[in-house]
Amino acid sequence: MLNPGKDRIDYGEKLRPPAGYTLSYALATSYSLELDTLLAVPLALSFNSTLDDAEKIIGEKLVLLEGIHQLKGRIKVFFQQGNIKLPDTSNKLYSLLEHCLVPMVPEGPFSSFHPKIWLLRFVNDAKDVQYRLIVLSRNLTFDRSWDLACTLEGRDSGKITQENDGLIALLGDLAPCAKDFSTAFRLFKKELPNVMWDKPTGFQSLKTLYGRKGQVPLEYGLGTDTVLVISPFIHREALAMLKERGTRHWLFSRGDELERIGEEDLQGWECFALNDRLINGEDELEKAKQQNLHAKLVLLQNGRTCHWHIGSANATKAALGDRKQASPRNTEFMLRMSGSAQNGSAEKLREELVGTEKKPAGIFIPYVFGSYLPDEQSESEEVSRKLLHALISVDWNVVATHDGDELYTVTVSYPDSLPLYSATIDVRPLIIGHSQPLQNVMVWERLHLTQISAFLILTVSTPEGNVEQRVIKASLDIDGGDDREQKIFSSMIDKPGKLLWYIQMILQPNAEKMEWLAAEKNMQLSGEEETALSTVFDGPIYESLLRCASRQPEKLARIESVLTHSSALNAQMPKTFNMLWAHYRAFLGNI
């Protein structure tokens, strides 16, 4: 069920490849994201690590640089344009994430690109394929809110199944937006119709449901006697539509949302709010964050059968439409799991979340209404949403022109015209300190290659004093080619000793996160090539090279790439290493 004490999911653990498998391709969707969270993903996918302490190690770390490189061309993340959180600090590695991010622009200012999934394809040495589907209510952030997730493992069943119809439809709409990921999409299209998922305990069947304009991401079935809804954001119209089904209606939401809708419009719903003690549980910590409700679930029960809908959709008009046949506006994704009410009934879930009169669970508590606020959206909020949608809809372009002496002139432009608004809008690239007023063409001069970014910060200031900042991703063209990875690598590996440590780590058969962090510490303590060479060759370096040549030749290709990126250091490398590597460089032609 959903017992927070024992049914917790470690996000990073669910991204780790199964034993004996490696990642082939990964696809994710998210409404919003944090660049630091995306930087941490390689810790799980490339280094078989959890993300339990990822926030503590984010920065310009070599383990992150290597992880990003290993995933290049194998991961795509689709997100709503403009919904990248502005980072607290700058990081040169952010620019290396640009290749995996695909911005999606919703159809209108009051619709959203909102699905939250991971689709992972793994392979082993025998070329066996295993899939994993993670359906979440959480965005790709370090947020600590209460969320729901379901992880499914799948393999080729040898027959056509309808389980993935909704997933395949979503992927079909995403594919034209990432043509450089076409090989992965072709494999998904070929293999997913035959993939059958292992069912969670208590469930006998499942479906994937794709929500889009005119298509509700729920399947109601033949009848309903009980409706249980968990949703952080709610609209009275969507709730009225759900209330038409069944005779018992239980609603779990945020207290401020329940108050906003009001007791009168929630007649017929038994309402519960997340306990304030859980929301503010970190108040005494130095970097406290609220832990509010963000989970989404619609449970429809009919006698002895229950249908759980888990995923991205809130109980709102934009996600579900309403009883007046208004069409949903959002792009959503839900997983529908059906089973016996004996194991997954609404009654059991309610008791788990609320408890009994004698033994309350302390997670959700019955909500007591006070005076409620009107539900009308303010005119200024509507104007703000229209302006932001106009800003993310234009075709933003960044062009970097080489000026000589390793300096560039960066021109940011957009060919479209924007509607007239009373707000003031300033623009600046993510890694550059000064902003400029919005114009069709804006220029920044004398920038170094590592300061160039496809990420732009838009600052919108209204006459009422409201300030909102959005990070968008623009198209980027760099005169002479994009050598930022090589430049960043050279700035982080600036001594021969550090380079030798780095090569040593690449040669490790299954180096994990903590080994990389320890090696980086050694690099800082020992920058002399003699010391590093002695340490490297005290270990089984010859055996490691021989093993890689026979079992992991791609690692030899990676070492050659590293040496190419650090060409400025090659003349300073010890002759012993250069002589040894010359033999293995000849082997690369056979890979």
Short description:
It contains 20 helices and 23 strands. It is α+β, with helices and mostly antiparallel strands and 591 residues long.
Describe it for me?
It is a single chain. The protein has 591 residues and is α+β, with helices and mostly antiparallel strands. It folds into four domains: 11-198, 2-Layer Sandwich (Endonuclease, Chain A), CATH 3.30.870; 209-366, Endonuclease, Chain A, CATH 3.30.870; 379-482, Immunoglobulin-like (Sandwich); 493-590, no CATH class. Helix content is 31%, strand content 25%. Strand 16 and strand 17 (407-413) form a beta hairpin. Helix 2 packs across helix 4 (62-71) and helix 15 packs antiparallel against helix 16 (513-525). The protein is globular and about 80 Å long. The mean pLDDT is 86.
Give the uncertain stretches in residue-range form: none
**Rounded average pLDDT:** 86
Could you tell me the CATH topology label of the largest domain: Endonuclease, Chain A
Look at the structure and give the CATH class of the largest domain.
Answer: Alpha Beta
Beta-strand segment tally: 23
What is the strand and helix layout of this fold?
Layout: H1 11-15, E1 21-30, H2 35-45, H3 54-57, H4 62-71, E2 75-80, E3 101-104, E4 117-124, E5 129-136, E6 149-156, H5 165-174, H6 182-191, E7 195-197, E8 203-211, E9 226-230, H7 236-243, E10 248-253, H8 255-261, E11 270-274, H9 276-279, E12 297-302, E13 305-311, H10 317-320, E14 332-340, H11 341-344, H12 346-354, E15 364-366, H13 379-393, E16 397-404, E17 407-413, E18 424-429, E19 436-437, E20 441-448, E21 455-461, E22 467-473, E23 475-478, H14 484-492, H15 496-507, H16 513-525, H17 529-538, H18 541-551, H19 553-565, H20 575-587
Helix pairs in contact: 2-4, 15-16, 15-17, 15-19, 18-19
